[in-house]
């Protein structure tokens, strides 16, 4: 009889945790550990489950995540979906497609799953800075459109309320103080000298994300100063990725528009490069609940446990 991986999802009632739990429930090589309702907030009971598990997902608020990690066994393998450990040098950042990151995740006990907006931004900017196409000092901006599921259960309830206020009918810009919680990782994991000016927008659809970064051609090195050359750079950088697709430069959809919900319920990510002789627009499209959350978490789990990297994922 095949032995099964014991997996504990701490916070399995939230949006990300529930989706991870549901995805793994049908996996033949996984045994999901759980606690009775009355013990779900009992720290000692949760720490005991972490010790028993081959891997634990933390799908908790930041402070609750910090508390559990402080009491968890040092050798326990943990994937944290909260914000709190993403730029902690003692943790490994769970973006397997970045140079050298797959091997780091493979050998890590502590992996921080990337934020959804950050995933798209880092996918677009990291290769440019790493390969010398763009200066680390260049001031960037980023616009990111997300479905309302990114706001968790309370926001989902607001949008799905039949008697909701009229404001929910239109896209809404947030993060207006320019201190969004994803900014530290957006700077650190791209190698930028400063975070971008970041404009997140939530709109009236359930899930899907479209992240765009405008770049003047004059900001790029002479070697990669066109849409075609940037698309080629991305293609080479992600050539071994099973989840990231890079489209040929200036590949337009039939109607000339990118729909942010096109990858809803998928775990892959696609990159587009548009523009003209003087300006370029870099675009990353994926699901905020997929490659932006639960899909990325399961990908990290697969790598840490030695499973097939995309096992249980919808690509």
From TrEMBL:
Keyword terms, alphabetized: Amino-acid biosynthesis, Arginine biosynthesis, Cytoplasm, NADP, Oxidoreductase
Top-level taxon: Bacteria
Reactions catalysed: N-acetyl-L-glutamate 5-semialdehyde + phosphate + NADP(+) = N-acetyl-L-glutamyl 5-phosphate + NADPH + H(+)
Residue ranges of domain Semialdehyde dehydrogenase NAD-binding in the record: 6-105
SMART domains linked: Semialdhyde_dh
Keyword Secreted part of the UniProt annotation: no
Pfam families assigned to the protein according to its UniProt record, in alphabetical order: Semialdhyde_dh, Semialdhyde_dhC_1
Gene3D superfamilies from the UniProt entry: Dihydrodipicolinate Reductase, domain 2 (3.30.360.10), NAD(P)-binding Rossmann-like Domain (3.40.50.720)
Listed pathway(s): Amino-acid biosynthesis; L-arginine biosynthesis; N(2)-acetyl-L-ornithine from L-glutamate: step 3/4
GO MF annotation terms: N-acetyl-gamma-glutamyl-phosphate reductase activity; NAD binding
EC number(s) stated in the UniProt entry for this protein: 1.2.1.38
Compartment(s): Cytoplasm
GO CC terms of this entry: cytoplasm
Active site, renumbered: 116
The keyword Methyltransferase is assigned to this record: no
Biological process annotations from GO: L-arginine biosynthetic process
HAMAP family: ArgC_type2
Function: Catalyzes the NADPH-dependent reduction of N-acetyl-5-glutamyl phosphate to yield N-acetyl-L-glutamate 5-semialdehyde.
Similarity comment: family membership: Belongs to the NAGSA dehydrogenase family. Type 2 subfamily.
Protein name: N-acetyl-gamma-glutamyl-phosphate reductase
Gene for this chain: argC
